[in-house]
Structures are given as C-alpha cells and as structure tokens.
Amino acid sequence: MRYELLRILLVDDNHHMRVLLTEILRAIGVVHIHEGADGAEGLQQLRNHPIDIVMTDLSMQPLDGIDFVRLLRNAQDSPNQMVPVIMITGHSTMRRVAEARDAGVNEFLAKPLTARGVLERLNRIVEHPRPFVRTQDYFGPDRRRRADPAFAGPWRRKDDSQVSFSHQLD
User: Fold this and answer.
1) Fewer Cβ atoms within 10 Å of its own Cβ: the N or the C terminal residue of the chain?
2) Is the peptide bond before 112 cis (omega within 30 degrees of 0)?
3) 63 falls in which pLDDT band (50, 70, 90)?
4) Sequence-ordered list of residues with C-beta below 8 angstroms from that of 68, at least 6 positions apart, any chain
C-alpha cells in the first residue's frame, strides 16, 4: 500500500495522543495528516480538506466520538458521509464497541496503541472496504464482517428487503 497517498484526519482532544498517532503514521509513510481537537473541529477539517480516513477518539468534550460519527454519517450538511472511520478508545467494553459500530464506525482500535494495530486497521479499510448500507435507522458500513458460505438467499433477515446497498468505498 502507498501510505504516502493517504490523507488522514486525527480527531482527539488529547494533544499527546494526536502526537503519538502522528508519529506512528509518519513512521509508516503517511505525510498528509490533519488534526482536530474535538468533533466540531473534525467536521470543519473535513469541510476544508479532502480526507481518506478519519481516526477519532471515543471520549472527547464537548462532542464525543460517537456523536461526531453520527453527525458525519447522518447530517444533511455532512462534508463526507462515507469517509471510513477508525474509533480509538481506552473504553473497549462490548457496549461501547456496539455503540460505535451502530453509529457507523468502520474499525475499532483499543488503547494502548501500537504501530501494528494502526497498520492492521488501515489495511482493513483500504484493502477490504465494506459496502455502505442505508436503512430507516442506520447509514454506514455493512456491520456484517463475514460472508456465510452456506447462505443461499438474497436476504439475510426478513426485513432486508428494505435495505438499499450504496456503492463501495473508493
């Protein structure tokens, strides 16, 4: 992968975490890194710059990571509803992971961060993008990660006829 072509936005209210992520990203060759200190700044950065991947913290003030992703995915004036999002947090309980997934997060990365963890999430997003799904109450990447080889029908749930699949991420 050509990391030098990626444009990444870091959204975290902790300056030291943004510095750490910047160092990890620069070490693997990423040169286009933008920053926001909270969700509102993150949205503004997305309006000002073309961004390929967002990496955001879950716990921020005044707009936390989950609310940031909900706005990003669902607001009428969202600058890029389909940008892939990696949620980073030290609060990796199943409830918080499910909440982030249900908000439209593509990948989840628990602290403490490692270069390997960052690389794995970036590779998943770039090498194995998931299609986006729109339903009455969800817009974001398909939450189903595995294809069931035994599945033979067009719908996996009885209400899937209401699902419209959007185009693949670029």
Assistant:
1) C
2) yes
3) confident
4) 11, 38, 39, 42, 43, 56, 60
Tell how many helices (H) and how many strands (E) occur in the chain. 5, 8
**Per-residue CA distances from 122 to 2, 73, 97 (Å):** 11, 19, 18
Average pLDDT for 130-135: 91
Q: Percent of the chain beyond pLDDT 70?
A: 84
Question: What is the spatial distance between Cα 128 and Cα 65, in angstroms, rounded to a whole number?
Answer: 23
Task: Give the residue, 122 or 158, on which the prediction is more confident.
Answer: 122
Cβ pair 66, 91 in contact under 8 A? no
What torsion do the CA atoms of 95, 101, 104, 110 make, to the nearest 10 degrees? Answer: 90
Return d(Cα 154, Cα 141) in angstroms, integer: 18
